Prior knowledge:
By secondary structure, this protein is mainly alpha-helical. 78% of the residues lie in helices and 0% in strands. The chain is globular, with a radius of gyration of 20 Å.
Amino acid sequence: MSNNPAVSDHAKGLAITALGVLFLTPDTLLIRLIDIDQWTMIFWRGALMACGLSIYVVVMHKGGTLRAFQRIGWPGLGVGLGYCLSSISFVAAVEHTSVANTLVIVASAPMFAALFSWVFLKERVPVRTMLAMLGTFGGIAIVLGQSLSGGHIMGDLAALGAAASLASAFVLVRLKKAVDMIPAVVLGSVLPALVAYGSGLATPSAVPTESIWLLILMGLIMLPLSFGLITVGPRYIPAPEVGLLLLLETVLGPFWVWLVIGEQVDTTTMIGGGIVILTLALNSAFALRQKSAVEDPGQLSEPQVSEP
Length: 308
């Protein structure tokens, strides 16, 4: 067994992040199984997740909890708004299109984040990432084209909104890298609940008895654990590896739904989704290879050219 602390930290990061993603994969299945309307789902999902994440913040910051919320500043408010819009759009997408379509489209969030960083933060984007954007958005165009004739276009557009909103939150997090942004995610969980309840669209009491425990499992346990682990794991492993692990949800999410309730994935979605997953996986793999080359130039035989 290696005594190298770097190897141990890397293994720890992989295990934590993978566990976080695995906790997240049944999310869409539970949304399908819980027999409540869209806005009541948004209310309980947000309220319970806010409770779970608040416990995490209190445990981590103890007497400095209030200060932790103050430190997020205006970027944190933007992160919260991004998570709010993403949460509302995600539930709407699952309700109005297939799980496969939803997860394939939401998987494009890192590409939207790269695009937004390029446009708004003026960050340099590697050529491989630009090519990955084209491949990803091309795959999504195939999925959207199929939905135009299949009647699921509104659900797919909601998924696109979820991806873009989530990406905006990712970009704003970069403005305060040293600050714990979990309090901002708490805010992003509270806001959808307030919108759903304040608009009068949600009926929180109208939850069937058999769905209560599934709601608690999803909102109070599964989602907070998942987001907490996915937030901690990347401290030990590079972003491209995180991206690869997050693709597990895109693959396993539709699988659980097919296994339990028999929801099929149509051929066009498989083609478009395959393009998206392959593109994102290759982009992450090349990024990892480049990172390894920079850290250990001697391990690659061919000369490396730095990307613009």
